[in-house]
Amino acid sequence: MPFADLAKIPLLIGLLWSQHVTYSPPNPFAHPEPDAKGEKPVVSAPVRVMRRPWHRKLFRVCVTTLAPKISSHLGAKATVRTVLLCEIIAVLATEIPTSLSTYILPVLDLSERPGTGASRIRITPTFAVGWLLAMAGGLLRIVCYRTMGRHFTFEITVRKDHRLITSGPYSIVRHPSYSALLLVVLGSVLCFYGSGSWLRECGILDGALGKAFGGLWLADLLYVPVVALFFRVRVEDELLHKAFGSEWEAWVRKTPYAIMPGIY
What we know:
This protein is mostly helical. It contains ten helices and no strands. It has one domain. The termini are far apart. The relative contact order is 0.14. It is found in: Endoplasmic reticulum membrane; Membrane.
């Protein structure tokens, strides 16, 4: 039904919102060095970032090499926006056909008969589950931002006036923002790669280049949560332990799990 297919558009916009919330820092970069005015740095510990410059550059080079038709200047966030925009346009071009549809569909639908793949873009159980996970993660991420306030930065550091936050979601697990990140990433993978998606139905992942692009982008999506699980949690715990000592130890005894209650 056309209405059911069009109903996916606001859900895709919601998915875009969850991505924006998750990957947009709520506070400015925590500079370890004095600024141009000579003011003292606001941190008292080394600053570490999640995505190294080489990683960003490598991803951009690989994407533009493997998928030049999608964009010539894609970063990680831009890739998400581009894929979602392509899916929305494909749905509109199929369900509300205009003279432009004859030009749009051959570009966005790489199936044997342009338009047949786009007509299969729909809300599926896989998409619904993924969307709910991504929305839950986005909302939890906002709660973490508000609970931490100005102390929440994307860089691993401790401010000079830092205090240990143990309330709200931080009373359930020690790193709830990473719990939210996992929900968003897992949900997004289901939405982007599952049945009924633009990538799957329109033949974008077919062929050698398509498979290479799909694999590269999947690796990039999973890179951040993997780093969070196996690197950042350990580093942050060590940094907080050093900064707060017995206060941190009491929090760990009360809140023993880092990301998933009862599991990890």
